[in-house]
Amino acid sequence: MIISIDCQWCGTSVSLPSSGYMTVRTKTKQQTWKHSIQLPISQQEESFLMYEFNSHYELLQGLQTLMDHEMQQEWVHLSQIHGNKSFPMQIEHLFERLSHPELVTIIEEGRFTSYLQPIVHMDTGEVYGYEALLRSTERNVSPGDLFSFAKRAGLHSMLDQKAREEAVKAKATHLYDGQKCFINFLPSTIYVPEHCLSHTFNIVKKYNVDPGDLVFEVVETERIHSIDHLHNIFSTYKASGMHVALDDVGSGYSTLEVLSLLKPDVVKIDREYIRDCHENYDKQTFLKSVITTANELSITLLAEGIETKEEYRWLEESGIHLGQGYFIGKPSPQPVEEFILP
Hints:
It contains eleven helices and 15 strands. The strands form three sheets. Strands 8-9-10-11-12-13-14-15 form an eight-stranded mixed barrel, surrounded by four helices. Strands 4-5-3-6-7 form a five-stranded antiparallel β-sheet. The longest helix has 19 residues, at about 155-175. The protein is about 35% helix and about 25% strand. This is EAL domain-containing protein.
């Protein structure tokens, strides 16, 4: 039996054999694990131990021992019994993949689709575009669970890449020319923008989508560790004729100060500031400051999470450009084509 395991960085698949060798470095503070792994020692040196496994279950048990000794972040090398090639894998990643092969299959085979949630012009109610939201075709697997597993298993690069492709396909299949499609992305999966995004750019060409109709959006679960790195990612998208958006301004990393540094085309306002904005003075004060800054920088503002007519009306009258939320339309396999102004 072969389980496919993706490259640590770019999502290229390699194969994990059901029998072979696991090589573990021995230069750690605690080495009690050496005598705890119930696998035969094939080779022993001062700097490493090589264990032989004859099934994925045996390998999983050996990995469990390493996890029990708090070695999750360390790496092992796996190799076939009759072969010279080996590849490194972080212990936690390998353990998670062997523990949940069904989730690995969902990600690797792309067993998901994109639902589309409408985004409208606040003043007219006309549809501006849609956000593509990932949904698994397996009923018992939620998007949140899938992304959480992908992060633990080191598969977030592969999932992010495949999710982007599914979103581009949804744009080509369901949306008209000129309608924008917002596509989430994880900055942590993009190491060298010019290289890592080449797959996405090729997909855009494959489906004959106008790059100007795509808006790539930093997802809310991410944290910006390097403004310069994100600026390079944004610049790479823009150089290919696409637009970029910053999510959740006002919470976490997306402070007003970074807007002038990153200059995104669109800024989404954190939904916590949208809820009951029509009757909360503090939220109104913050929103007015965002509107002023966005106008100064020629940034389009999008209010997400709109759930009531009162919220919608206050935001529209205050000068917010675009709106999104259950009050306007829920995510669906087919795009909602019309919204009636309240």
